[in-house]
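Data availability excerpt. The first of two example chains:
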Amino acid sequence: MPIVEVRSLSYTYPGSTKPTLTNVNFSVEEGEFILLTGPSGCGKTTLCRCLNGLIPNSYGGEFNGQVIVDGLVTTEHPVYEIAQHVGLVFQNPENELFCTSVEREVAFGPENLALPREEIRKRVEESLAMVGISHLRDKSPEELSGGEQQKVAIAALLAMKPKILVLDEPTANLDPASAQSVLNVLLKLNEESGVTTILVEHRLEMVAHMAHRCAIPQ
C-alpha cells in the first residue's frame, strides 16, 4: 500500500464558488522524492494542506474524495495525530518558530507528546545532527539566517519522527546558496534516512535531478 494516497480529491474554500482542486488522484510510495510544481494558483499549497489534515479539519470548505497518509484517513483523525506522521514546512520559517532557542524549538513537539525526558533529549540531538545545525542549539531563531531558520523548522518536524515530509516552497525566500543548502539536507534525509519527501518548488533547475517523479496539481 502506498504511504500517500489521494483519491478523487476536490476542494473548494469557504466562500468560494470555484474549486481549487478538482478530481486529483495520485499516490506516493514510501521513500519516494516527489516534486510538485506548476503555475501559481494551480492548487499546490492547498494540496499540501490536505496532506496533513489542515484541510478540511482546520479550514472547513467543501471537501470531497479521500486522502490517506501512512494508513490514516485525514478526515477521521485530528491534525495533531496526523502531524506525527506528516511534517509540513511552509515558505516562511519565521511563522513557525516561536521558542527562545533552537534547542527548545526542536524539543517543543516531543514535549507536547509527553515523551520521557531522555527520549526528548535523544530526538533533539538526532534531529539537530541530521540537518547539520547542532552548533546552533543555543542560538535564538531570530538571530539566524533564512536558510538556518528553515533547517530549524525541518529539524523540529524530524523530532516528531514523521515518515513523510511535505515542503511548500521552502526555498522561496532564500538566496541561491541558502536554497541549495536546504535542498541538500532534504536529499540527504531522503537518500540516507528514507524519509518520503513531497516538495513544492519552482526552481526546477535546482531540484529536477533530486526527484523520482514530478506531479502537477489540476
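And the second chain:
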Amino acid sequence: MNQEINVNPNLLSARRVWGLPLGALALAALLWFSGWNAPVFLWLHEHLLPLGGFLWANLTMLGDTAVTCLLLVVYVRRRPDLLWAAVIAGLLSYAVSHSLKPLIDEARPPAVLDIVVVGPRLLHSSFPSGHTTTIFVWAGLLLLGGAVSHRLGRVAVLALAALVGLSRIGVGVHWPVDVLSGAALGWLSAAAGLAIAARWPWGARGYGRLLPIGLLLLMAAYNLFWHRTGFTGVWLTQQGITLAALVWGVIELRAGCLQQSLCRKG
C-alpha cells in the first residue's frame, strides 16, 4: 500500500497559495482600518439570521475540527498523503490560532452588541475564527492538493467553506475580520501542510499511515459518544456524518487491503 506523494508542485505555485489569503487579509485590513467591521457584521447578521438558526448551526458545525476531519475519509485509500498533510496542517493552524486568540483577546460581537445569538453565547477570544480556519484547511487541502480538479467541484468546495465562514457571523459570534483572517490562516496552513508532507512523507507510507487513520477513528469515536457542539438541531447531521465516515472508511480500508493482496499475488 506504499504510494508516491501525489502533490503536483504546480498546484503550490505562488499565485495559487497566496491569492486567496492576500485577498482575504486585504479586505480584513480595509474593514478594520475603515471602521466598517462592526457595521458590516450588523448588516450581514441582520440578513443572515432570518434564513434560520437551524441552517447556520448545521453549517457552522462543519467547521468543527472533530467533524471537518471526517470529510477527508474518502481519501483514506487513494490519497494517504492528503491525510498526512491534514495532520500537519491541523497542528499548524491550531498552534497559530490558539496562540493569537488569548494574545489579542478581542471581544466577540455578543460582548459589545445587543444581538440574537444562535448556540453558545461566546464573549471573548474572537480573533481569528477557529471554525473558518478549520474549514479552509480542508478546502486548501482539496484544492491545492489536487484532490478536486473539476471546475464545478472546486467552486463547490470554496462555496461551502465560504458558507461555513459566513455561518460564524450568522450565529453571531465572530466579526467579518475574524472570518477573513481565519480563511487566510486555514489556506496557508493547508499549503504548508502539503509542502511539508511532500518533503517528509512518513505519515503517508507504510506503518506511518496508521497515525492519520487512527486519528480519524478517534475523532469518530469522540463525535459518537462525547462531543457536544452546544448547538441545538445539529445532532442528527453530526452523527450522520460520523457514521457515514466510519462506513466509508471501512470500505476504503478493505478495498485497499484487497488491492494489496492481489498485487502481491500478481
